[in-house]
Amino acid sequence: MQAPELTRRLKSKAEQLGFQLSGACAAVQPTGLHQFFDWLNEGYAGTMQYLSDRRDAYSHPNHVLENTRSLLVLGMHYGQGIPQEQQVGKGRVSSYAWGTTDYHDLIHKRLKLLKKFHQELVPDQQCRGVVDTAPLLEKNFAQRAGIGWLGKNTLLINRAQGSYFFLAVLLTTAELSYDQPIEREHCGGCTACLDACPTAAFPKPFVLDARKCISYLTIEHRDAIQDDLKPAMQDWAFGCDICQEVCPWNHRGSLANEPEFEAIADHNRLNLTNLFSLSDEQFRQMFRKTPLWRTKREGLLRNAAIVLGNQRAKEYLPVLRKAASQTLSAIVRDACIWAIEQIESE
Known about the structure:
elongated; 346 residues
């Protein structure tokens, strides 16, 4: 099968499977590789040691699939939705985690169907589908595939559809017809995302210091959070959407059409005190299949305590004192003690 027809049919199938965005590019060394290495050398990855451990693998897609020739980069919207009004005792959750399923599980299932279709079309070629866990600079290849540009907040932005979407990649040893890359960014003089970040996590445009990013602190970071960063976390219990919420390119609203990504009340706004009453097994049953499982119970309780401390509500002192005295986790205890001190200082 010729490259144009193969590309057309793969894109059409991807659209049927729920991917609203698609673009193809050659498997080459990513243009942003040296910037990535500089970013690692600056220590901006924080405790995400897995990035440094695999740094050499990011140099070419062949390290993900041997003899890769082309990449079909895909985007699936999750939509920003409408957050509930701020409430004492409730914690905000990044909109990608509002649904009932972990996006990795859903997208992997769709990629398996796309892979099967690929094998039917070109049985003599190999392919592999990945979702943000392989050593691949997806955003860089997405720009090369014409899907969008890297904004000043380091997120991929599509001119017509904003930035609220997941990226996935189908790597193939077959040749595809390649899309026109996005040669320049369209952020212009806008600095809304940089100005709005409460932790000043952007040392300069297009560079993120993950060690200060609320999403990193509440999800990826496994230790106690620095006291000077805790107030800036505001009421974010899991992730953060601030730099997307203020981006003018996201003014069009939600484009998601996956029922499993639709918001449910318990995830849109977490009931923080309920979290402290859950056993390990109850926590597992409630969050095991959702993105919130990523931070595990200890991390979510740490985040919940910090949010309660920022909300300064005295009625939650008993919950925090009980957790501080009974928990076996130094990380949770640290957050509870800090929260108690904030409330009592009022």
